[in-house]
Each structure stands twice: as structure tokens, then as C-alpha cells.
Amino acid sequence: MNYLKEDTIAALSTAAGKSAIAVIRMSGNNSFDILNKVFKTSSSKDNQIKYGFIVDGNEKKDEVLCSFFYAPNTYTGENLVEISAHGNPVIINEILTLLYKAGARPAEPGEFTYRSFLNGKKDLTQAEAVCNLITSKTSTSVKAALNNVKGAFSTKIKSIKNSITNLLAFMEVTLDHPEEDIIFLSREEKLARVETCIKDIESLLKSYKVSKVLQNGIKVALIGKPNAGKSSLLNAILGKNRAIVTDIAGTTTDTIEETIDCYGVPLTVIDTAGIRTHTENSIELLGQEKTKETIFSADVLVWIFDSSLPIDKDDVQIANILNKEKLSIPIIAVLNKSDLPQKLNIDNNSLFSKLAATKIKISAKKETGVFTLLEKLTKVVGVNDIQSTNLMINSRHYTLLNNALEALQKTKLELSKKDADELACFHAQVAQKALNEILGIEVKEDILDTIFSTFCIGK
Ligand SMILES: Nc1nc2c(ncn2[C@@H]2O[C@H](COP(=O)(O)OP(=O)(O)OP(=O)(O)O)[C@@H](O)[C@H]2O)c(=O)[nH]1
Ligand SMILES: [Mg+2]
To answer: Are 358 and 380 in contact (CB under 8 A)?
Structure first.
């Protein structure tokens, strides 16, 4: 990636498309000079925000407001300009072309935030969280991402790291002066300190599962035979008529996906084509294949039965598919149509009772039992305490935290032995290095490239 620090970079920072206002960002030492070549204003004051026009020679291209941010107190730590223009892609294109002609170059993905990291405005966890903050799908995930941006996660990491640094200082003194009989910190005290660091890391590692759900959400597939009420349930969950509902078996032939905020969890609900043993319809057959693919990519399955009918061969076929694949994901059996006389009995059938151990009665049509189902869904995937999650821990952090934990466990082991302080020091340094890497200290260039290349241009 072309992350040349000396260049002045520019890009559209708001979403592409038509909008009342679009913001173009430009950052680098020459930002103000470049802007002055294409910006005419009557304001002579040293204002931070100036009204004027973007011009190509004498031709006015757009009426804009330009905000001037002076280094080092800016997002990137460099001189930075934000041009608030009219949100028309034609105008944006013209302004960017003028800026590039005047000396700026197009920003690479995530380059503004990368510069913010390079210039010490943000550590790596804070820079990563900018991306999470923009893509977060629920208010709970926004809160967690914002906490990371504000530095809550890095503060915890720094605190553990400082404890290790402190401990290392004591351990190294003992190593350097073995002949002197001065005990700066008793072995028990050293062990206790390592133990505290281990506990702090373990507690962060525990938040990972929920954090992952906050970032990626949960995929819930609604499966079942035709006419069981899958599309009716999707509509009831969404509170709108998203999918077509009819009494004709095989109405849904494709998957329909929508994401909702379910008690803070981004829940992607997928309606699928009903699975049945016999159909002449080739479109429906393709749909059934897609349903099978969806089953494998889902985090939870909601298996819908028509409880006004006895078990039939279509229900058995679905049970066989689920059995055959030995799926390890949770399954919730939904006994739909509870408003009608009940004829279904899956309890006395071992094929079903094993697969569908968790059961809920609902009526998708009358919209009863739907909230209970949603509550159950978050519990089944083990994220019912999501509201208490206030940090974003990503897979990179998770791996490095595990490395640090392993190294600290080895430190503890060596400390408990006699005359193994040198090895204890070595392992404590490994832990310290892993924590540094989380913060972005001594991180290899290619790792940074990988992280920032997932950002959009303009961030
Ligand atoms: N009485 C009653 N009827 C329901 C209920 N849920 C769905 N239905 C009816 O059952 C029929 C089929 O509903 P759908 O939601 O289209 O079923 P589906 O599982 O999506 O069916 P396919 O798309 O064909 O696989 C429709 O006539 C619905 O009105 C319910 O809770 N009670
Ligand atoms: Mg349907």
C-alpha cells in the first residue's frame, strides 16, 4: 500500500451518492496551500471556517464551507481541511480532480486514521475502533466501539503492561545483584502480581465472545417445511410485511435477509424456502439448495413446525438433513399456529425431541410469543449479558491476549521454582511484547497494512 507520509492526501469522507452535504477531507503539510489554489473567499479573517467557492480558474464549481484545522490538534495530527460541498457525485468528482491537479493525491483506504496512528493521536486499538464505530449495527455496539475509541480498552492494556514492566524491574534487579542479599520484592509478592495480571487478561478474554457478536451479529435461519409460517414469523419479527405470505406451499423461493437490533444484538434473520420431499418446481428446488447452504452458515436455527398438523414426511426430511450433518449450532423449535387446534406431538418422537430440545409456542399470525422467542435466541447463543459489554475485543486482540496469558502462566511457573528467575523474566518480556503489539507498539508494517486496508477510503 502506498502510505507515503509526506504526501498531502484527499478523499470524500462521507458516503458516495446524493446528499445535502458531502465532506471532502484533505490532510498533509501542503493542505492549506493546495486549497488556496482552488478556493476563493472574501473572508480575510483567520477564521477556522470560511465561506466561499471552489473554482477552476475563473469558473465557480461549487459554493462551499471550508474548515481549517491546524496541526498538531487535528484528527491526523497534520494540517487538515474539510470541504463541506453539495452532495452531488458530479460536483465531488470535480472538486477532487481540482485538488489532485493542485498537488494532493487520492487517499488510500484508512489512510487518514493511519496517519492519526503514526502521529501518535491514536493507538492501534483506538484506530481499529474507528472502523467498528462506523459499522456498528446497534446502540450497544456503538457504545462499546466508542469506549474503545476513547481509549478504555488501551487503558486496561497499558495498566497490565505497566504492572509487568514494574515487576520486570524488580526481577531484573534480583538477577543483576544475586550476590547481594537484598530482597526488593518477595517471591510471594511477585507471584501475586503475576496472578493479578493473569486475572485481568482472563477477564478481557471472557468479553471476546460477546464482543464478536456485537461486531458480527448473529445469523438466524428460519427453516421448516412449506406453509409452516416462516415468512409470517419474519414479518412478525420485523413488524412489517417484508416477505410474501400465502397459503400456497412453496411461496418463498429465495432467501430474504434483514437485520434488527435485538436487545442490543445485531440479529440477521433469514427467511428461507421451505424444504419438502417432492416438488416439480425447479425454482423451488434451487431455493431448497440455498436453504441448505443457509443452514450451514447460520449461528442459530429456528425450526418452524405447523402445530395444527401432525408430523409428516417433510418434517422428517428436515430432521434427517439436520441429523446427517451433525450440526453443532443451537436449534430452537418453534411450534407455530398456536391459535389453531393443536395436533403436533414431537415430544414422543426421539428423532425430533433430541434435535429440538428447546421449544417455544407461538402464533406468527397473531404475533404472540415472538418476544419470548427473541429473548430465547440471545440466551441460546450465550450473549444475554450483552448490555454489560463495554469494550470491543477483536480477533487480533484475542490472539495477542492469549499469547500474553500463556507467557504469564509460564512466568508464574518459573517464579515458583528456585533459581529460575532468568526464564521468568524472559516469559514476562514475551507477555509485555504481546501487549505492546495490541497497542500498536513495534508492530510489523504488513500487519498495519492488513488492518488499515479493511477501512474504507476517506476514513
Ligand atoms: N392460523 C395461523 N395461520 C398462520 C400462522 N402463521 C402462518 N399462518 C398461515 O400459514 C400460511 C403459510 O404461511 P407462510 O408464512 O407463507 O409460510 P412459509 O413457511 O413461509 O411457507 P413457504 O414460503 O411456502 O415455505 C399462510 O396462509 C399464513 O397466513 C399462525 O400462527 N396461525
Ligand atoms: Mg415463505
So the answer is: yes
Q: Are residues 191 and 337 in the same domain?
A: no
How many Å apart are CA 375 and CA 385, to the nearest integer? 11
Distance 249 CA to ligand 1 centre (A): 9
DSSP state of 215: H
Nearest atom, ligand 1, residue 226 CA: 25
Instruction: Specify whether 232 is located in the same domain as 360.
Output: yes
366-422 pLDDT per residue, tens: 999 999 999 898 888 776 666 667 899 999 999 999 999 999 999 999 998 877 788
- The reported pTM is 0.80
State whether 396 and 373 are in the same domain: no
Q: Which residue's CA lies nearest to atom 7 of ligand 1?
A: 229
Has residue 450 been placed in a domain? no
How many angstroms separate the CA atoms of 67 and 82, rounded? 5
Tell whether ligand 1 has an atom less than 6 A from the beta carbon of residue 242. Answer: no
- For ligand 1, say whether the CB of 231 is within 6 Å of any of its atoms: yes
For residue 235, which ligand has an atom nearest its CA?
Answer: 1
- CATH code of the domain covering residue 164: 1.20.120.430
At 229, which CATH number?
A: 3.40.50.300
Phi, psi of 234 (to 5 degrees): -55, -45
Parent domain of 166: 129-207+392-440
Measure 301 CA to ligand 2 centroid, in angstroms. 16
